[in-house]
Amino acid sequence: MSAAAPDLATFVNACIEHAGGLAEPIEPDLIEVLVPDALRGAFGEREMVRLALDLAPAEAHPDAEPVLPGSHLLDGLIEYAGQFGRCTRTWPQCGPVRPRSILGEILRAVTFSARRVQHSEAEAIRSVAAHAQFDFTVSLVSDEREEVLTTVVVDLWSGRPVEAFAALLPGLEVDPDGSSPAPARVRVTLEDAYTRACQALQARMAPRIERLQGLIGRRLQAETGRLELYYRSTLHDLEKRLEKAPPDRAPAFQEKIAAALFEREARLSELTTKYRLRPSARLAAVRTLIYPRLFAPVVLERRGVRREIELCWDPVVGRLLMPVCERCGAEADYLELKWDGAIVCRACTAQDEA
Amino acid sequence: MTSVATTSPAAAPDSLEARVRALLERVLARADRQAEAARQRGLTAGRYAGLTHSLKWVEEQIGELESAPNGLTAYGHQLLKGHRERRQQILDQLQKYGAPFRAEETEIRKNSDQARKLMLRAGGVPDPAARLEALLGAFEPVRAHLTPTEAETTLPRLVSSVERESQGAAAGSDQPSPIPTVEPPPPAPWVFEPPDPVLFQPCPGQGARDLDEYRLHRRAQELSLVRGFDVLLTPALATGLAQYPHQIETARMVLRRMRGRALLCDEVGLGKTIEAGIIARELVARGLARRILVLAPPALVGQWQEEMRGKFGLEFRTHDDPEFRAAGPDAWKQFDRILASLATARQPAHRAVLEKEEFDLIIVDEAHHLRSRTSLGWKFVNALKKRYILLLTATPVQNNLDELFNLITLLAPGQLNTSAAFRKEFVQKGDPRTPRNRERLRQLLAEVMVRNTRSQVHIAMPPRLATTHRVTPEPEEAALYSALTAFARTQAGAGGLDRMTLTSLLRQAGSSTDALHRGLAGLAERRSAIREAVTPLLEQAKAVQRQGKLEQAVALLTARGDKTVLFTFFRETVHALSRALDEAGISHAVLSGELDAAGKDRAVREFAHDRQVLLSTDVGSEGRNLQFCHSIVNFDLPWNPMRIEQRVGRVHRIGQREAVLIDNFCARHTLEEQILRVLDSKLNMFELVIGEIGAVLGNLESDQEFEELALEIWTGSQDEAEAEQGFDRLAEQLLDARQRHRQSEEFDAALFGDELATRPAEEDR
Ligand SMILES: [Zn+2]
Asked: Over the stretch B106-146, which tens digit does the pLDDT of each residue have?
């Protein structure tokens, strides 16, 4: 039985290396470490230590310190690594910024209800923009605790979460030597983007919470059923005895009934507090992802009303960032230009007509 | 009270209508009884008997005076006036005191009359369905007189039957009403920890290092995630503690399948405490438990505290901790993790506070003390508010299966149904100890109970061989000890020095003259009142030149030559021994509480490497494993057998391959000699199964610690002969406790066998 996480050894080595120490492998999952100054505190002020990175070597070598989930040493290393990299910038590598035909991409992604849709390829501008990546540690606590690390990416130009990014992140190729001038197309502060990210996180976790609620419901139902049956029959027995009891014994039974009712309430409320789901999240890291995108102005005309909007092609996501309805704020693949100049989605239009 | 005339067509005796009527009649009869009871109470409250008697008498007097044939004298008029006033007073009082009850009575009668009218009226309705509806309406005014069962089960069941009938469906059979569907409570609102503002600042670094650090950070976050109970966090936390697989399996099963409420019944020696510790640690590590209360027998409280601290990093306050005492009853609220004896916790003053507190986890060790549902202990634990609860006992059943029912009901009311139903289904008539329907019972128990056995776990531990060395003290040593004993007896009798101080002096005397000298000097300095009595003792201690025990111990170590741990409680004794070993040319390392962690590590390493002897205090060796050597010497003797067991356990543990030699030293005519006589000669403590001594002490019918008992016997006796008798009685009690423990154990072995043991394969399903 192995308690170690698969990438534990990589992590331990990376920490030691980062702190300027040396790790020498002796056996699989057993290393000897020349402790760097920065880690002396975590390693009990020793210069040399042997570390066992799994249960088996820990048991075979009592002189080696186990670095396993829950051990002080691993906690120390996690704390060490946690100080760095909480707030970083990165430059993802992207293909050609300009697709073959931006207008084609636009029209493929969005249907416009306007008499005229105007766009000239030449007007599309390549411009550096940024996404903010928020890494959250999410805890779902009921009578058990479940934690996940989840990432929400928010476009700092539109202020909208980009769900498609979550799938891209694990394989995201970045330019290690990247650097560029400050992104020009930023309209949203990190604080505001964080607020949107929190909302997006809640929406993303909703299905998982619903699943958990189902599980909690089943456990609660089973336990409540058992309690209910027990107290029902207990009360029933007591009532029968009360009916038969001579008057001087009656108060004693009445007290017992009251006590049983009280106890039942207490047990049921214990259950509810035990099982109630408590979701929480902590922002662990913020990363700004900087790269150029293509911004394309589009002019819409209908019944003498004229509006210009700007759409954005994201070369990393490889598609158009969807525009939003100006009334309900939802992403929309159909937009209608209204007489008052508003650009509205299909659902909102239908509502208007109704 | 009118009786109800049935005007409706007679309903068939088991028809729905008959059942509705029967219930209504029952409720009305109950209402009548309650009205009558209210009237009686009203009368009592108005001191009816006394007052009516007075009223009768006063009225007689008034009658006589009023009908006096010759009219009244002036005095007669005065008397009559007085009687009339008295009559009015009595009437007023009757009115006043009985009033609330008469109001209650009136209210009840009004309601039941109303219900009766509705019932009569319903009887006149010709359509059967409408008649039923109307009859149900008659319950409305007397709702308050339904019993909880009637209100929650019987009546709703009838109502739904009536509804079904009116919808044309077949009348419902008399099935128990279903358990209401429970919706899970809505999730609490999301909590977002306020983010560190630094995260929103423009970041300083860039390039490759930034990227590496981000990746390192991310990996750290991933590793710190808590992932359900599949990966336990404790085994590694409890460094140096090689647990048995069954302990880990047990913890996992309790956490995952039993949702943290379980009866842990491993046979002694298999580490129930460890299992409970793992579970507690897992709950704490996941933020699921903060407030923990451990209830243990007085003799085991110290052991628990050390195990939880040393093996699981969980600090507990004990109820006799000075800070805890200083905080008064509020202490129970103030500290998150508390260790107390059941006897203390259930005292009325403590109980009142504790019952209001909410605990996340409650652990009860030696829980067979809660076998009786009428006991104060059971009621107390039942009343405590807790989310997770662990009951630990090697012997859940002693006399009958009801005991098992009681323990399980404490964890999971209803798991074994009600007491009556349990007996009916699972207990053989006329034989309260033999179960019926064994397989069904096993299934139910397996949901809340674990019992690993020694035969199934296969723990092979080498034997322990104990030798007692009774050393004849040097004359001046003997004189000092008897002078000290005399002093202690006077002090104890006169209520002079407190128990702690006396214990400490006698234990110092049992260790070495050096330790005693230090203790006496400190006492003389602190307590001027008794300086005069202490000074001669101090002089005597200074005069001691040779110490018999010390010389013999050195002789033994010289002869043995093997690696040996020599335990003593006192620092001064360590120093004295260290000097003596130096003189004898015996290499040694010192492990005492004064050293920091690194110093202790060094001492153990030196000993392991090239020293023959490790001089260790009890505190110094806490949490250290010394199983690479197999010989220990108890140079002095802790009075608490659990402490002795702890010393032996540093060496006699998993990984030990050789027989463990235990050499106990004591001087003749001392308290320690008596303790060794009781524990070694009579109880054969060193030959007991590991852990059995704890069970024996837990079975001792005493709320006192073993140390207290020993001190009481020694200081309460006139001479050694009387003390010996006292210790004989203590030995009897211990043997008795051991006997009871073994009987239960045998019985439980026959009852449960290996059926409730953890099975790793099953666990993975
Ligand atoms: Zn819309």
From this structure: 899 999 999 999 888 888 888 888 888 888 889 999 988 88
The range of the structural domain enclosing residue B263 comes to 243-457
B residues 276-315 closer than 8 Å to A (CB): 285-288
Q: Does some domain include residue B519?
A: yes
Q: From residue B322, give the alpha-carbon distance in Å to each of A94, B334, B348.
A: 67, 14, 21
Q: Going by C-beta distance under 8 Å and a sequence separation of 6 or more, which residues neighbour residue B354? A: B293, B332, B345, B380, B384
Q: Which of residues 396-435 of B touch A (CB under 8 A)?
A: 412-415, 417-418, 420-421
> Which of A233, A235, A242 is the best mutation test for B, with the most CBs of B within 10 A?
A233
- Is position A42 within any domain? yes
Share of chain B above pLDDT 90, in %: 39
To which residue do tokens 């919808």 refer?
Answer: B167
Using the 3D structure, point to which of A85, A119, A136 is the last residue of a domain: A85
Residue with tokens 């260290």: B578
Q: Which of residues 316-345 of A touch B (CB under 8 A)?
A: none
Do B287 and A191 make contact, defined as CB atoms within 8 angstroms? no
Has residue B273 been placed in a domain? yes
B437 and B402 within one domain? yes
User: From the CA of A274, how far away is ligand 1's center (Å)?
Assistant: 41
Nearest chain A residue to B257, by CA: A219
Q: Is A106 among the domain residues?
A: no
Cross-chain residue pair B287–A66, CB shorter than 8 Å: no
The pTM for the full model equals 0.75
Tell me the nearest-neighbour CA distance from B563 into chain A, angstroms.
19
Domain limits for position A42: 6-85
Whether A176 and B198 lie within 8 Å, measured CB to CB: no
| Domain count along chain A | 2
**Dihedral sign, Cα of residue B345, residue B348, residue B352, residue B353:** negative
pLDDT in tens, B249-281: 899 899 988 989 999 999 887 888 889 999 999
ipTM of this predicted complex? 0.90
How far, in Å, are A31, A208, B165, B231 from residue A51 at the CA level?
Answer: 5, 37, 75, 20
Contact (Cβ atoms closer than 8 angstroms) between residue B693 and residue B466: no
Burial of B653 (0-12, 13-18, 19+ CB in 10 A): middle
Q: Note whether residue B73 is domain-resident.
A: yes
